[in-house]
Design goal:
Number of domains: 2
Strand order of the largest sheet: 1-2
Largest sheet: 2 strands, parallel
Radius of gyration: 15 Å
Structural class: mainly alpha
Order of helices and strands: HEHHEHH
Number of helices: 5
Length: about 110
């Protein structure tokens, strides 16, 4: 569901290139399958349909250790439960995790 919501936000904000990264190998395998648009899971089909819009998306598996920023965001205490939100500005600590991930991903 997080991938779908992230793609919806990216589409609404007119992004033209999006890289989907997940530590879930099965999710990535299903998303990059040529038959994702007819997958048995409606969530995979919805993501595939959105990915087929006029933009470039790619999907990549990364180990959990390679995404320290996402791990830190999940553990934040002060975020509202089940709400979708975007950060206008990242704190210095989150920016440093983003830099670490950028430099250390495969």
């Amino acid at each position: 569901m997080g991938i779908l919501i992230g793609l919806q936000i990216a589409w609404e904000n007119e992004f033209v290139r999006v890289l989907i990264q997940s530590d879930n190998k099965e999710a990535i395998r299903r998303l990059i399958d040529a038959n994702a648009i007819s997958d048995s899971c409606s969530l995979v089909r919805a993501i595939a349909k959105l990915r087929n819009q006029e933009w470039f998306t790619d999907a990549q598996w990364i180990p959990r250790e390679g995404n320290k920023l996402a791990d830190a965001l999940v553990k934040l205490d002060n975020l509202p439960n089940y709400d979708t939100f975007t950060f206008e500005v990242l704190s210095e600590s989150l920016l440093s995790l983003l830099d670490f991930d950028r430099l250390h991903v495969m």
